[in-house]
Amino acid sequence: MPKTVLITGASSGFGYNTVLKFQREGWNVVATMRSPEKDQELHKLDRVMVTRLDVKDRESIKAAVAETIEKFGSLDALVNNAGYGVAGFLEEASDEDIDNQIDTNLKGVILVTQEVLPQMRKQKSGSIVNVTSVGGSIGLPMIALYNATKFAVEGLTESLRIELEQFGISACSVAPGAFKTGFGHNSNWLDGNAKPELDGLRESFQSHYSAILAQPPKPFGFGDPKDVADLIYNCVTGTPSHRNFIGKDAKMLTFLRRFLPQKAMDKMFKDSILPKGW
To answer: Of 55, 173, 220, 273, whose CB neighbour count within 10 A is largest?
Structure first.
């Protein structure tokens, strides 16, 4: 019998490519998204079920997991991929900005994981892959809230992999660098609590940051999202490390952090991310 994987945030980017990868490998795939009615392609594929799941809505999570088990009889892997980024001064984040970022990137991972665990324990097997970011291990300026959620998911994953081992369930993270997924275009600005005295700095940063996101990052350029999908599949079907960096930039940054002084790392990030003169 084919195994079954549930993937959150499957409408685009890493999630979309991961659906295609598992489907090609013969798995049953549950491709979840907030607005499944907008899907034009995935539902046409054999063994792919497209259904609604909003990671901020526990009832939608319960319904999606129940539908998965009813249709396919098992739930062998979970890929927690849904997420988005926010950038800007932390001081200018409104309560809504904070809640939305944490509820999507962190609490959503917790809620979906909670819901699949009873079935995996019953089966005495299962794999959980949490898609994080190199920004879950290295803090970058002006994306503090995003960094906080990704650091938190890394800690969550590291704890879960030990906690769940007794049940035959594995847990690991996949931490990409810069990939061509549209992530930058889907990012939001932290300005729900905008301060007039920061208007000039905010505007200069937004202009500078938008220009950075519009160009392939130097010197490596964007990675191919299909490579991330391949890694996620290998994490589920093989024996992964607990944290799996992917992308030349991610691997280089984590390598440099081991050898460069913190001041040198800080200068590198300031020069590459912040406007000149800050």
So the answer is: 173
Pairing type for strands 86-87 and 169-176 reads unpaired
| pLDDT for the residue numbered 191 | 87
What span, in angstroms and rounded, lies between the C-alpha atoms of 195 and 203?
12
- Please enumerate, as own/partner, the contacts of 203-207 that have beta carbons within 8 Å and a separation of 24 or more: 204/275, 205/88, 205/142, 205/274, 205/275, 206/88, 207/275
Least confident of 98-107, 113-122, 209-218: 209-218
Token output for 178: 């810069």
Residue type at 37 in one-letter notation: E
CB distance 179 to 223 below 8 Å: yes
Domain over 4-85+96-187+223-273 is classified CATH 2.60.120.650 = no
Contact predicate 3/76, CB 8 Å: yes
Residues in CB range of 195: below 8 A, 6 or more apart: 89, 91, 92
CB atoms within 10 A of CB 124: 10
Look at residue 183 and tell me whether its pLDDT is greater than 70. Answer: no
Q: CA Rg, the chain, in Å?
A: 19
From 25, 59, 61, 23, select the one nearest 44 (Cα to Cα): 23
DSSP state for residue 184 in the 8-state scheme? G
**Which pLDDT does position 187 carry in this prediction?**
65
Q: Who has greater pLDDT, 231 or 223? A: 231
Residues involved in catalysis: 146
Task: Tally Cβ neighbours within 10 Å of residue 103.
Answer: 16
